[in-house]
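Supplementary Methods, section 5.1.

A reviewer requested that the exact input to the structure prediction be made available. We therefore reproduce it here, unchanged from the version used in the analyses.
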Amino acid sequence: MIYTVTLNPSIDYIVHVEQLMIGDVNRMKNDLKLPGGKGINVSRILKRIDNDSTALGFLGGFTGRFIEEWLERENIQTNFTTVADDTRINIKLKADEETEINGQGPVVSVEEMNGLKKVLENLTSTDIVVLSGSKPASVPTGFYQKLIEIIKGKGASF
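The structure derived from this sequence is encoded token-by-token as follows.
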């Protein structure tokens, strides 16, 4: 099985405006909300080329439910670790130039981090794990390295 890990997924809220006028009321031409996160995007592309994967990472709150429900509609398997805090929202403002405002991400507790580690304890030597994207600010530097050690310890590829 291929597993994709997104530690800091998001809802990408894409807003199109004719012209951005700072300090004024701007009206949208259109908008779109999509699940975001590099690992999630890998799972979505794998599905489009008829390869199954399971998306892992941290999801919480109504924003996390939105992402999970969207992926279910796309028939992408998920096994996210639930966190108490809301998954972030990133704003992609498209006008003459694109401006992005990215959320920091949820506060992830040690217990929640350990929950994701436990999921990876079930890997086998036939599994592949894709680790990609940013981490929430609350997740310590070196957390990816700890995940890699678990993955290697199970004989899986990353």
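The chain has a mean pLDDT of 96. These observations are discussed further in the main text.
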